[in-house]
Each structure stands twice: as C-alpha cells, then as structure tokens.
Amino acid sequence: MRQLPATGRRIYRHRTTFRLAAALAGTAMLATACGGGSADDGPVTIRFSWWGNEERARITNQAVDAFEEANPGIRVETESIDFESYFDRLSTSVAAGDEPDVITMGGAYPREYAERDVLLDLSEVSEQLDLGALDEQALSNGEFDGSSYGVPTGVNTFAVIANPAVFEEAGVELPDDDAWSWADYADIAEEISSATSGDTYGSEDPTQPDTLDLYANQRTGLGLYSPEGGVAVEQGTVTQWFELTTGMADAGATPSASMTAELAAQAAPEQTLLGQGRAGMKLAWSNQLAAFREGSGDDLVLLRAPGETTAQGTGMWLQASQLYTISRRSEHPEAAAKLVDFLVNDPAAAEFIKSDRGIPANPEIRAHLEGDLTDSQKVEFAFVDRMSGLVDGDFVIGPTGSTESVDLLQRTNESVLFGRQSPAEGAEQFVTGLTDAVS
To answer: Per-residue pLDDT tens for 113-128?
Structure first.
C-alpha cells in the first residue's frame, strides 16, 4: 500500500553521517553498505531507511532509540525521505553500492531487487530474526522463488467499506457478509440507488486491479499474476467482470461512465462518493477506513468482500503495508536482523509505531495495542483479526512492470463503460497489455 508523505523534506536522526549524499558525489571510499565500526573498535553501525512524513520519522526514531538501549552493541543511523523520491534515491544508492542495511520496500520492488541479487535471503539470519509469531499468510508477501526476502511491517486487507447511514436512508439492511455473492452486491447497490436521491449511489464503480485480483482468485485460485511472475488472469474472467460492472452502471447501481471517469482522477478519500456520504459501498483497503470516516462524517463499517460462495473460496489475502528487507551486502546482517526482529516482535517498538505501518502482522502485538486504539483502529484491528482466519491463499507479489496495471485497467474500464468496447474486447485489451507490461 502506498502511504503518501506530508512533506518532501528528507529527515535524518542527528547521528546520520550523510554517506548517501557523499556516494552520490562519487566518494567511493565510503561505499560500504552498512558503514560504521566493527566489533573490535566499538559498536557496529547499521543504516535503516524508509519513506514517510515527519510524524513517522519521529515515532520510528523513538523505536530505534529503544532498540539501541536494549542492544548497546549496535548503533543505528536512520534515513527518511518522501515517497515520491524514495525509490529513485534507493536505485541510486544501490548502483553506488551504498544502500542501507535495512531497507523498507513495497509493491513490486522486493521481487525486483531480489532478482537483482540485492536482498538477503532471510533464512541466513533466522537465529536473529524470529518470524514464527507472524501471520503465515502475511509472510507470503515477502516470499518468492522459494526464499523469504521481506518481513511485513504491518498488514491490511481488501474489504467493502459500507455506510450504514446510507443503507438506513434507503431502507436496506446491511448484508450478511459471510454469505453474499457479487450478484447480491449488484442487487443491493441497485436497491440503494433506487431508494435514495439522485446524487446518491449504492456503490462506486468497483473496478481496480485489487478488486480484479480478488475476483480472479475466487474463480480460478489465481489472481492477476502467477507465483513465477507472469500474468495468470484469464480473459474470460475479465470479460465476466466487465459484464458485471457494465450491468451495474446500466441499472444505476453505480454512477454513469462520465462520473466514474471523473472520480478516477480524484485520489483523496474525501473526494470520493463514499467520502462525501453519497455512496453506500466502496471496495477499498481496510486501513483507509479512518480517512473515509473523516471525509463522510459517518461511522463506516468494514465488510468482507462478496463472492465467498464460489468454489475457489474467499479469495481474501493479507497484504503487507510495507516490508522490511536486508541488503545482501550488509557487513552486519545479524545486527540488521535484530533490528527488524525488534520492530515487528517487541512491544517496546509497538508502543511508538502502533499501526502507522499497518495493523501489526504479529497477533501478540495486535493484542498488546488493543487497549490504546481509536474507534476506527478498533474496527480495523477486529476486521484484520477476523480475516486472518479466513484467507485462503498466499499473496503474490506483482512482477516488474505490474505497476502499469492501474492506468491500463482505468483506460480499459472507461472504454468499456462508455461503450467503445464490448466486455470481451476490453478483456482482451487488458490481458494483452498487462502481459506486454510484465514481459
């Protein structure tokens, strides 16, 4: 999940030596991946990088201070930068042989960097990094090609975010989300639209890569991508999806094609129909609940995604908000592993980080934090706990090029909704384009 920063300023702890800037200037003498001293001349020094705003930097540095207090033989230099610049800067530091020891990753980047032999196989530091308490399905976010390269910082899951106030206005009961199908979803959305004012809809258009990934998983047991890094979704599945969504639009269950196209350009939760209190349902990530609640002013709820009655199962998965990875070139991989272990397993770190990087993947840490949560966080924690017992597959990290799926699907979806292509033609265009993007 992408988490947008609030500032573009790079943030360092006071002990940072700015080696990355020196490497960019060509100072090759400093090109060691972890820097700092050795066990013979004092504490070892490792570097830890992430993206985010000043508040994330503040609480993360507090957790690092707690780690150093518990591990006096290890000194940690921290680096934080805005999301838009983070991976460009990481690419440059990797090329210079000066990447941090502990690198925060997300999206398709873990697979990309592992395939470039940048990341450490975490089995090499299993004595220092205990992953036994973490949700098994969440761990799959960092596993591919038979090895583990990343540890989830926290997890969330895909869900239907629903507005009970809109349901009540329409005289429609909230669904039994243990038993509803996609046909039920469409029917409920149409019923809400028909019973409310003209500017309120039962659902926003649900088409996005994550929804299609879920839908495909339910039908074939594979989502958009195969574990080997290719495209797994079938044209027939995408055709069925477009038939469902065009039918919803034609029935008024979702907005018109022109409104859906306009909404697609609005990224902020408060700019969506759900965020304006003008939609009964929206497919979104569980960690977006608070933002949608704030925008709408209503006590929104999380529902399990429809489709559980299909033969392949729920299609649900736990997705890492971010992943902690370790550089293969680190001079102190054991120290780096101890830091990662502390961040995901120690209550002392959780006291500062809480759910900033997603709902903790460690159920024991989730339980530790439950007494100090906002109302929205309580709903999120409970939903993730519920879903962790229902997921029926491992998350498959998208291969290099998979990030193009967002724009590709949006363009195709608009073409189908406007009637310029049939659902079958749109499906062929999407699968062909996606295959080209990841080839």
So the answer is: 998 899 999 999 999 9
